[in-house]
Design brief:
This protein folds into 2 domains: about 140 residues, Enolase-like, N-terminal domain (Enolase-like, domain 1, 2-Layer Sandwich), CATH 3.30.390.10; about 240 residues, TIM Barrel (Alpha-Beta Barrel), CATH 3.20.20.120. It is globular and about 60 Å long. The chain is built from 16 helices and 14 strands. By secondary structure, it is α/β, with parallel strands linked by helices.
Length: about 400
């Protein structure tokens, strides 16, 4: 079998309601869908994170990565990953995002030709379901009464873990966690994602002030991408305050090495569509298992969520934690674009039995989800403008 072509489709859909977090407001969702075609009629599907520059990621795939894989055996997955990385290493994280889609599509091909679901090819984890936490574009920065109503809605559906969005100021963040804790009780895990909004002193204060509310984790507390603050995370973790989660903005197994060895996190959050694909994601999970650090993958709704579900099921059981999940509706990327959408049962995500990723893509829906120009999010200038303005005004 030989790879004959690589193609890319950019898809978007407009959110029915503007979603707000500490970074700003979001009005749409993007996905970079990757197709790896072979001379035996088998096509693998994968997805790359858009990186807020979907057209750039598409160009990297078609101009820089495609020539490296066309003509190769698609089952030589590790060798192809190493080839792509070696040639594009100077392009940094953007190239890793681009690689993620091709690597995942190669694993999908392997599953299809062997007639096995991807999670079993990865070794399996002895499970047919993975517990989910409600995250992605849910539980955003909003009126606290509305936030409580949303939180109760999800727990009423059987979800046992919620992730709120923070970074909207210490007082607001603490008030939001307190209100949700009082509403859902002690049987629900509550986390908060700061979205890299706070300085070192603010991060210390928020972790200390959240202790009374039994917060499951505080995610990415520091300004700028957490990739530059791994040593600071370690300092924060050593204060023994609220547990820390990070890793959604770190790339490749090499990138996770310092995060793990410095001891700065209690939960790591690799994402298949961001860290370079299935190949490095499994390496990261095994590194975490050796150090007994919990793995709670980051993800976004769509095909990427399916890829991360297979990855989650193959994580060693001693460190397998929640997988991020977005239950909001309507969501065409989750509900109609996938021919076999993920099924949910009492807050758990059920593994598909089909070969590869266990789903194909409805190309009519892909065509309908034509790419929407522009950034998916509107920055709020470090969030400070957002903090100072009423949420209703900031979201207009």
């Amino acid at each position: 079998m030989k790879i004959t072509d690589v193609s890319v489709h950019l898809v978007s859909y407009k959110l029915p309601v503007v979603w707000t977090n500490g970074m700003g407001t979001t009005t749409k969702k993007d996905e970079v869908l990757v197709f790896v075609h072979t001379d035996e009629g088998v096509t693998g599907i994968g997805v790359s994170y858009h990186g807020y520059a979907a057209k750039t990621i598409k160009a990297l795939i078609l101009n820089d990565l495609k020539p490296l894989v066309v003509g190769a055996d698609p089952l030589e997955i590790q060798a192809l990953w190493e080839r792509m990385f070696a040639v594009t290493v100077h392009l940094g994280s953007a190239a890793v995002l681009a690689m993620s889609g091709i690597d995942t599509a190669l694993w999908d091909i392997l599953g299809k030709v062997s007639n096995q679901p991807l999670y079993k090819l990865l070794g399996g984890g002895g499970t047919a379901k993975v517990p989910a936490y409600v995250g992605c574009m849910t539980l955003g920065v909003q009126d606290i009464g509305l936030l409580v109503d949303e939180a109760v809605k999800w727990t009423d559906q059987g979800f046992r873990s919620l992730k709120l969005r923070g970074g909207a100021g210490l007082e607001r963040d603490v008030a939001a966690v307190k209100a949700v804790r009082e509403a859902v009780g002690s049987g629900v895990d509550i986390s908060i994602d700061i979205n890299a909004r706070y300085s070192w002193p603010e991060a210390v204060r928020i972790c200390r002030r959240l202790e009374p509310y039994d917060v499951y984790w505080v995610e990415d507390p520091f300004d700028y991408t957490i990739a530059w603050h791994q040593a600071d995370l370690a300092k924060l973790a050593k204060l023994d305050l609220t547990p820390i989660a990070s890793g959604g903005n770190i790339f490749t197994a090499m990138g996770f090495r310092n995060l793990l060895e410095l001891g700065g996190v209690h939960y790591i959050q690799p994402d298949v569509v961001k860290c370079g694909g299935i190949t490095p994601a499994i390496q990261i999970a095994h590194m975490a298992s050796a150090q007994n650090i919990q793995v709670a993958p980051h993800t976004l709704a769509g095909l990427g969520q399916m890829a991360n579900l297979h990855f989650s099921a193959a994580i060693p059981a001693n460190v397998r934690n929640y997988l991020e999940w977005e239950p909001t509706t309507p969501n065409p990327m989750r509900e109609t674009m996938l021919t076999n959408p993920i099924k949910v049962e009492n807050g758990d995500l059920l593994l598909p039995d089909g070969p590869g990723l266990g789903t194909d893509l409805d190309m009519d829906v892909v065509a309908e989800l034509s790419f929407i120009e522009g950034l998916p999010s509107r920055s709020s200038a470090r969030g400070r403008q957002l903090y100072a303005a009423p949420i209703s005004a900031a979201a207009q």
